[in-house]
Specification:
This protein is α/β, with parallel strands linked by helices. It has a single domain, classed as 3-Layer(aba) Sandwich (Rossmann fold). About 45% of the residues lie in helices and about 15% in strands. It contains nine helices and nine strands. α1 runs parallel beside α2. The termini are far apart. The relative contact order is 0.14. The structure holds NADP nicotinamide-adenine-dinucleotide phosphate. NADP nicotinamide-adenine-dinucleotide phosphate (NAP) binds next to α1.
Length: about 260
């Protein structure tokens, strides 16, 4: 995908990787639609893309509201005509043990990280097919490839994205719909601060592991490289990505390590 003069919708664009990807893509002179629930953060992102010669339409959108998602897509498609890229970053994480986590927390995480993501993709897909194609990207995680302590529902929500979007990809290749699944490791963003604890409250801290991760700006460069190449999976991060290969090629070692993994 060449971003120049394309219309690209980025969710979760008020902070972290969504913001950094918006800024990175703005250097290619694209038309951006940036959405999130945080309007202050969105306006900051919009101001950051202007110096690069791109414009950004700011859309306040809560990914847990399916009706709002459908109405917003209808409005945007009427307004801009076409969406060439839909890159989804909005999501929440978790810091709680299975034994302590009420099912309401599990449902909330699935609602945003899975149902919200597929609702937006389903709402955009018909117009992408009608216009002759487009690119979708969704943000999984390393823990979308294997289980991890304190992340049960989060890990499940990210695993679910792989099954869903690989199926969407297989059904829609004939319509020129390209799908990239982003798999970040540890990236320095606010994701752990806003993660749900066992009481459904904000965890409030950045994990030590995450603080040692790569910056959101570096992650955005890796992501945009993968999106330009239309890679089906895009690994994002540093040495922590090794765990993916351990899980794939040495599963018994992963099972041994998993019980000793430091969750924060
Ligand atoms: N950072 C990592 O190490 C890492 C690793 C693997 C995967 N990921 C994934 O990467 C994606 C981006 O996260 P990030 O690391 O860039 O963290 P982030 O800075 O916290 O970005 C997540 C964004 O999603 C937004 N969001 C949360 N719930 C929402 C909702 N209901 N409706 C609309 N927007 C909502 C947040 O807005 P608010 O500020 O309003 O909450 C925030 O702007 C997430 O899907 C995350 O799971 C991150």
């Amino acid at each position: 995908m060449n971003f120049t003069d394309k219309t690209i919708w980025i969710t979760g664009a008020a902070s972290g990787m969504g913001r950094s990807v918006a800024v990175e893509i703005s250097k290619s002179h694209a038309r951006l639609i940036i959405s999130d629930r945080d309007v202050v953060g969105l306006n900051e992102t919009a101001a950051m893309v202007i110096p690069h010669g791109s414009e950004a339409i700011v859309v306040v959108l809560d990914m847990s509201d399916n009706q709002l998602i459908n109405d917003t897509v209808q409005k945007i498609v009427m307004e801009v005509g076409r969406i060439d890229g839909l890159y989804q970053f909005a999501g929440i994480s978790q810091r709680s043990l299975v034994v302590d986590t009420p099912i309401e927390n599990d449902r909330k995480i699935m609602e945003i990280n899975f149902f919200g993501v597929i609702a937006l993709a389903k709402a955009v897909l018909p117009s992408m097919i009608a216009q002759g194609g487009g690119q979708m990207a969704v943000t999984s995680s390393l823990v979308g490839k294997f289980g991890f302590p304190y992340r049960s529902a989060y890990s499940a929500s990210k695993h679910a994205l792989h099954g869903y979007f690989e199926s969407l990809m297989a059904e829609n290749e004939k319509h020129n719909i390209r799908v990239s699944i982003l798999i970040p490791g540890r990236i320095q963003t606010n994701i752990s601060k806003f993660a749900l604890d066992k009481d459904g409250k904000e965890y409030g801290k950045m994990d030590a592991g995450q603080a040692n991760g790569i910056t959101a700006e570096k992650a955005a460069r890796q992501i945009c490289k993968g999106l330009r190449r239309e890679n089906k999976e895009v690994l994002v991060g540093g040495k922590e990505l090794l765990m993916l290969y351990i899980r794939r090629f040495l599963p018994s070692l992963y099972y041994k390590l998993a019980v000793h993994l430091k969750p924060t």
